[in-house]
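Cross-check.
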Amino acid sequence: ETKMAHECYASPLNSRYSSTEMKFNFSDQKKFSTWRKLWLLLAESEKELGLEISDEQLDEMRKNLNTIDYERAAEEEKKLRHDVMAHVHTFGAACPKAAPIIHLGATSCYVGDNTDLIQLRDGIDILLPKLARCISRLASFAEQYKDLPTLGFTHLQPAQLTTVGKRCCLWIQELLMDEYNLSEARDNIRFRGVKGTTGTQASFLQLFEGDHKKVKELDRKVTAKAGFKKSYMVTGQTYSRKVDVDVIARLSSLGSTAHKICTDIRLLASRKEIEEPFEKNQIGSSAMAYKRNPMRCERVCSLARHLMTLIQSPLNTAATQWMERTLDDSANRRITLAEAFLAADGVLQTLQNITEGLVVYPKVIERYIAQELPFMATENFIMAMVKAGGDRQECHEQIRVLSHQAGDTVKMAGGDNDLIERIRNCSYFEPIHAQLDQLMDPSTFIGRAPQQVEEFLEEEVNPVLEKYKGQLEGSVTLAV
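Predicted model, tokenized:
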């Protein structure tokens, strides 16, 4: 059996990256036990509305919700070529007294689609606290480094200073958008309910001898028992596949956020400003023993790239559902829905691990600032000279000449930026020589960055984290 396990393909999403709870959410056990629970809820509600179903039949069903004979179900499906009827027969074999009323009035999508909706809802419920933990860890990081100046980058070229904490808030802001999007998607998910083969509820209207009120009440009862506030008022045979589009689009959007965050960290790691956690015995390269590669961030980017591409499948599926439904959605959705959630779970698990162990190197950051700040401070030098009685245009020309000389030293000779030394040695700038250190203080170049961090955390981040009180504890240790 162990040998066979290594001779069959296993999805890395399942074997390497996703959590136990997410894997269970899309497992056969979760799926088929939910089918049985839905058959029970239907039978209970039909009995409550007057159909001849005995307590003995219901008790028999309750006792067999989780004891599924998978071998028998596989044999039945091979014979019948129909997965739902295979499990109807398998459940019926375990519940011989209840067998005549299992699936009464229902179509396959009663169990199939309603279970999918439950898995989507429960999957989001698994993801949201993990997303909140990533936000929480980054919020602490932003608070800790809100005052630490660092080079900003536009066009991937050095720009005005920001702070390490302020840059982190840019990451948090996008994660907050993802939290809002996923929360909204979760709240928007309804139950397919009890709708029949083409969504008209004709079979149930026949069961209840034309009593429209009872058919509507049956739909309401089953929906409530399944834990939903509402069902979709109109469906074809299936719920609209735009529901899948809406959910997977938001997961793909989360993927783009995680990719951006981890790309930033990878770029900063290449400059040795920030590093992801690196374990004592971890090997960065099989050849280059000194390397400390950002493999966790690279993993997030890799998984996120897969997650971002998955939205194409539900888009195409929704677009090609003819009339009340076509079955070309089935095989695709079996793969796409589960993979999207497993990939998103792997992304968040790894991202939490990264955010819990980020390392900052202030001295390296300080050195980079020292290389660029002299050029950024030239406007300050000009203003100070004018205040000391100098001519703005003449000062500008003096700065231009010295700046180009310093630039040549950096670019042509490979030396350090010596603009400040040149200014100190220039008699023209003697009136401000005593002010140069003050004019070059990095903390005077970061604007309101520290205050923005404080205000953002207080006004936008903390209220969201409050929703997850009691769910933010625990750290992530990666298996591989």
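The chain is about 65% helix and 5% strand. The first helix runs from residue 2 to 6. Passed to J.P. for a second look.
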